Amino acid sequence: MNGLLLQPPVLPVPQQGVVARSYRQHQVEGAGPLQGILLVYDTAMGGCARQDLARTLEALSVLRGALDFSQGGEIAVQLQSLYLYCEEKVRQRKFDECGQILRELRSAWAQCAGGPAPNAARVTSSW
Q: How far is Cα 116 from Cα 91, in angstroms, rounded to an integer?
């Protein structure tokens, strides 16, 4: 998961310097499991915002791979269905529909973590 989160986006971003990359690396390395999932959601939503097929699909794959069916039960099954649906929509270039689903899911996860809901700055960030 760290590799995906540390990769720069395919589209260039204005002057992402050494300090920004270093901050991002520390953020990813210091993230707990729930914070890591939130970072993957941010990456997937950013991919949708930039209509980056490969990055969005990779992030969705990471989210599916993080599911624990033995612990998550029916919720894990439902999340898997949503992630697969999002993958289908992204392949159809319906990034907005996928992005909306991901924003709602990320918001629910953020509430579990006690963290912030997504905002425009986060979704369109270089992450």
A: 29
Question: What are the C-alpha distances in Å from 37 to residues 1, 18, 25, 124?
Answer: 9, 24, 15, 18
Q: Establish if 111 belongs to a structural domain.
A: yes
Instruction: Note down the domain range covering 67.
Output: 33-123
In this structure, is the dihedral angle defined by the CA atoms of residues 118, 61, 69 and 25, taken in order, positive or negative? negative
Question: What are 23-47's pLDDT values in tens digits?
Answer: 445 455 555 778 889 999 999 999 9
Sign of the CA dihedral with 70 first, then 2, 112, and 85 last: negative
CB atoms within 10 A of CB 93: 10
Domain count of the chain? 1
CATH number, domain of 42, equals 1.20.120.340
Q: Is 125 within 8 Å of 49 (Cβ atoms)?
A: no
pLDDT in tens, 75-107: 999 999 999 999 999 999 999 999 999 999 999
